[in-house]
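Pipeline run #58 for the internal structure catalog. This entry was flagged by the ingest filter as a single-chain record with no existing model, so it goes straight to prediction. Upstream metadata was stripped on purpose; only the residue string is passed forward. Reviewer on rotation: M.T. Logging verbosity set to normal.
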Amino acid sequence: MINSEFLAEPFAQFLPTVFLYAELHFRFKWSGSRYFQKEPEILADLPIRIEPNRDIPILLIIKDSHLFPITLKYVEIVIYKSNKIIQSQTFQYNTQLNINWWDDTVMIDPEGISGDIEINVEFMYNVGGQDKKCTIHNYPLCSHDKLKTYISKYPYPNDGNVLYGDIHYHSNLTEDMVEFGAPLKATLAMAESLGLDFFCNTDHSYDLDDVPGSWTETDPTLEKWNKSRIEINTLNNGNPGKSFIIPSEELSLHNKDGRNIHALILNHSTFLPGSGDGAEEPFNFHADYNTKTVHDSLDNESLCIAAHPFNPVPLVQWFFVKRGKWQLEDIVEENVAGIQIVNGALDEGFYEGLKIWKELLLDGYHKFIYAGNDAHGNFNIYRQIKIPMLSLYEKNEQLFGEFRTGVHTNGNNGAINSAVTSMKNGNCFVTNGPFINITFQNNGPIYEMGSTVRSNYGIITVSIISTPEFGMIKKITIIKGVIGENKEVDYFTIMNPREYKLIKDFEINSDSNCYFRCEVELDSINEKRIFAMSNPIWLSPNIN
């Protein structure tokens, strides 16, 4: 006899790619697991870089000790530079844990330290009557390499009027049989140390309406969602002038073909249901919204962005949760401000998205680009389940705050509505290092990115800022696109100015409807591509 439980609910829930911290304890009742162990999950995490004059936050997590009670004795943290110990601290706990979730963020003063460092974290604990220790984590089948971070001497590049944000992040509001994220409060501490001004907690709509402790039962009272909004308000109000959280969700909705896609909904005041690919009911792909109908439910102050719209969809997800891609007809809907062009890596999805974005611009659509990482915890390394019950894997992608959306707010720092309005208007850029800005002026007001100007000539001012952390400016390109043409052209190029900061004016003349945008590449000290891309400014010639 075929086991319908295997084919339907449990199996389907494993099919979507797993991104969060790995949940080690779930097993099918008829099978074993290569990574199951009679211990709670234990792990340490920290950001990939630290701003000047900021402490190093190290997040310690112990999960599911209610299943396997534990006594946490102490945690030893050792910092290495060039393979030499430069600092060591021991944190005593001697705490008995018998709860679903425990975490603590310890702060390390990095005074006198700069550049690349490695950090080792050892947990000493007793479980089942046995004294044990683990390094970094207790996950089987994974490496226990030291965590790496960069202590910068320089603030993240900024002219003083930009807020940097990660617009796609998942917290521990997502928690199920295979995965869990990090708490909002701990994530806020990571953001501040990273030099990240805000993040959006875009937890899945099909997780936010779950009964607490369940991943299949829907809660009509929305306790989980309501408590999360209260917590966000409390954290923001208790942290004035510092990093903040934009309340958000990642909504599952249908594309024009009736397949499940995701939209980032930022700063919306009510919960939007969406469970078509949540696998909470076997082969139930119903969605409450599609790309046309969602518009009527959005607040004026909210923002809708196509989430990772062109990333490949695995065949099993295509079939078992009816996952699809954003189509051009979906993106051109008026309520969709633009696309999340970077999803934590410069991969196939990024380059396909860049190609399609250019096509949209040349066709006359005013759509903007944004960057996020889709990190689920994962501050220092991506360590997740690859094949349920069989394997885990690691990579250095989709890390919190690595790729950012830089939002020009003209001094209105700290205001959620100001940041969302600027993103909605396209006055923002994507980056993993340099600051970029372009403005246009013609004997009158200064126009920002996202603007449409009734003029056929004027001055475009380009501003680029980098630091030794990211490298000198290697190439600046002003790109022109004429509406109706098939290809953009490089209008101006500056090669190897050998500067960390450059402000330059370019004279613009055009007798056609067009747009101008800018890209900058840095001469990075490693093999990584360090770059920034602006959103366009459109010119509509004023011809008598």
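catalog note: The radius of gyration is 24 Å.
catalog note: The first helix runs from residue 4 to 7.
status: ready for reviewer M.T.
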